Amino acid sequence: MIMKVSLIAALTIDRIIGKSNSIPWILPDDLKWFKYHTLNKPIIMGRLTFESIGKPLPNRWNIVVSKNQPIIKKGITWVNSLRQALLVATEAAEAEEIMIIGGGNVYEQMIKIADRLYLTHVYLKVKGDTIFPEYKPNEWHVIFTEFHAANEKNIYNYCFEILDRRL
Asked: Where in this chain does the record put each DHFR domain (predicted)?
C-alpha cells in the first residue's frame, strides 16, 4: 500500500518551530489539532523531538530516528535513518498516512517527498533556533484554512492550514 507522507508543524511568521529543544509558545487548540491528525497513525520524529516530548505518544506508532544508541523505551521503534523509518511505517501500519512530527532536520529532509502539510501558523515574533524549511507556495494547493483570534486559553492569533502537493 502506498501511504501518504504528511508533515505536521506549528510555526511562527518567521518559520520558527523551536527554541532550546522546546516550543516557545503554548496553544492548547494546536495540541488538540495535532492529536486529532496524528491519532492511530505512525509518527516519525528525530531523537531530540522525542526527548523534548519525553515519552511515547499514546495511540500512535512512535518511530524515532537516531544515529546514537537508543534508550530502550517501551512503545518506541528506533531506526537509524529516515528511509528505514518510512519502510517500517509502511510495512507495519494499517493507517493510510505517515505523520512527520519534527524536528527541524527531519522536516528539512522530508518536505521534499511530503504529500501534505498540516500547518498551524502562529502570529507571533519570537527568537528561536529551529526553523521550518522553506516551501514554494506554488507547489502546494491549500485545501483547508481556518483562522482563530486569540482568546483566554490561546493567547496568540493562529491559523490552521492543510496543503496538498500539486501534481
From this structure: 4-165
Its pTM stands at 0.95
By three-state DSSP, how is residue 136 classified? coil
Whether the Cβ atoms of residue 111 and residue 133 lie closer than 8 Å to each other: yes
pLDDT along the chain (167 residues), means of 10: 91 97 95 98 96 94 88 85 95 86 98 98 97 96 98 98 96
**Angle, vertex CA 64, rays to CA 123 and CA 27, nearest 5:** 20
Q: What are phi and psi of 86, to 5 degrees?
A: -65, -40
In angstroms, the Cα distances linking 9 to 117, 132, 161 are: 8, 8, 10
Q: Residues 101, 33: contact at Cβ < 8 Å?
A: no
Q: Which runs of E-coded beta strand occur in 13-136?
A: 16-18, 42-46, 61-65, 76-79, 97-102, 116-122, 130-131
Please state the length of the chain.
167
